[in-house]
Amino acid sequence: MLETAGMSAVFACYNDTIKDIIFTGSLAELPQNERMCRLLGQLHGLRFHLPKHSTFATAIGAAGYAKFEGEPEGSFFEKMKRNR
């Protein structure tokens, strides 16, 4: 499963200038993921980032969105809502 997620990220970066991949979610914290990301990164010329506490990335993003809901026009989250 780790290789599938990693290769999906690699394929998403093909034909693009993106070279940094941030791996989040509970799979990102598995010990074997660090080695897999390092090897995939070397093989495909990409940089994988495994943030500490990445399991909570979705919850943190949702909390930030909820906090800024209704912010004045021009705020970051207001722009995101318009572009959905």
Please provide a written account of the structure.
- The protein has 84 residues and is mainly alpha-helical.
- It has one domain.
- It is 54% helix and 7% strand.
- The chain contains 4 helices and 2 strands, in the order H-E-H-E-H-H.
- It has helices at residues 2-13, 31-44, 57-68, 76-82; strands at residues 20-22, 47-49.
- It has a two-stranded parallel sheet.
- The protein starts with a helix and ends with a helix.
Give a brief rundown of this model.
With 84 residues, the chain is mostly helical.
How big is the Rg?
A: 16 Å
Our count of helices gives: 4
Strand content: 5-15%
Strand order of the largest sheet: 1-2
Q: Uncertain regions: pLDDT < 50 for 5+ in a row?
A: none
Helix content: 40-55%
Which structural class best describes the helix and strand composition? mainly alpha
Overall outline: globular
Topology (elements, then pairings):
Elements: H1 2-13, E1 20-22, H2 31-44, E2 47-49, H3 57-68, H4 76-82
Parallel strand pairs: 1-2
Helix pairs in contact: 1-2
For this entry, give a set of tags.
about 80 residues, globular, mainly alpha, two-stranded parallel sheet
